[in-house]
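To whoever picks this up:

The parser on our side crashed when reading a file containing two proteins. I've narrowed it down to the boundary between the first structure block and the second sequence. Both blocks are reproduced below exactly, byte for byte. First block:
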Amino acid sequence: MAKKRTIKRKKRGARPSRARIARVAKSVAAPRKKAKIVLWDLETTNLKGNYGYILCGATKLAGEKKIKCWSIADSSTFNDDPTNDKEICKAILESLEDADMWVAHFGKWFDRPMMNTRLLGHGLPPLPPIPLIDTWKIAKDNLRLNSNRLATIAAWAGLEEKTPLSGPIWIKAMAGHRPSIKYVIKHCKQDVVVLEQVYEKIKCLSTTHPNVNLVDGRENSCPICGEANLQKRGFQWARTRRYQRYQCQKCGGWSRASAAEKYPKMSIR
């Protein structure tokens, strides 16, 4: 008597719940949030916040053409007191406080402390603790130039030039001369444009750049520029473990895996 053939059917996995399907569909359909990187620069009448004030300030969202700029001449109190920068400080603060990260040149040592000095002096809240990417620091630690000034880095990289600012114009601007203030505004705006170009050029050298993937919600992408084009390039070695090393094929920046690879346990450090 012939044996009956039994056909084994594959067990189907449990169907995902409607809630899970909805979450997945929402994550696919919803556009990713792009890291809001704000570049900024100040022009002041003195290097010390208790002896000078902010003549003008400019901010620019990375990747966009629009530049926001505020000057002392825009203040409603300019005719009565051309040194009162309270309204400018408040406007700059509002433009900076919703950023994910900042970019400034020598900002850690000048722009940020200068801004906080003027804000607190006017009874306004200080700047929020937002990560600051300092192009001066990147150049100082990773390049060998005769100077780490923004104009020097831009000239070395073949980028746009900063507008010249002579002493007489500067003196007139500090005295409230509106045409001179207008020129300082132009100078400040160009500084931000050059700053962005320098940042794009040398950001690949940064080893402390905030991870943009945490904001974008990406995975397996460059933590500096967010591009999903990483190439495995050897390992980064520590005392007792090793990490997979990657290089971004767009910006050239280096990164490593967050978790160490399985490796024979080391009994001696």
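<<boundary where parser fails>>
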Amino acid sequence: MQMQPVCHVPHYPAPPMKKVDNDTFFACVEAELAEGRPVRFRLKGNSMFPLLRNGKDVVVLEKCPAESLQPMDVVLFRYRGKHVLHRIIRREGERLLIQGDGSIVAKEECKVDDVVGKVVQICRPSGKEIPVGSWKWTIPSRMWHGLGFLRNWILRMAHFLFLKQV
């Protein structure tokens, strides 16, 4: 199956961005996904650092069947009245344990019904499009999660050096 480029940006100035509150924005995201249309948006926040970068990377989400959700998928889900984009690290039946790549200890639990959509493609600022099923995404993702306790130390250093957070 060939994926259509969804990240392509024409070479003309983009219209000015309009700011909307999160509730309105994510209501639109959910409505578009429910209609079967992919949604793309620029990330905000450092919870998926270093693999996804705040204000730089764009993700493309699609609706996905609950039975297809599995560990290592990056999903948008409802959690305590908010929408969060994190990675599934374990599935136990209808329950998901989810954690941000940039999180040192925090983990969230939700049900598969709380998942709004799954990331299918990453768009880098350079225009490079990375399907999440490609080795360019799966290898770094698996390597990052395979670091175990070293990951926490690397994150602390990266937060200090690059994000100015401890």
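After patching the parser it read the second block fine. The chain has one domain: 22-163. The chain is about 25% helix and 30% strand.
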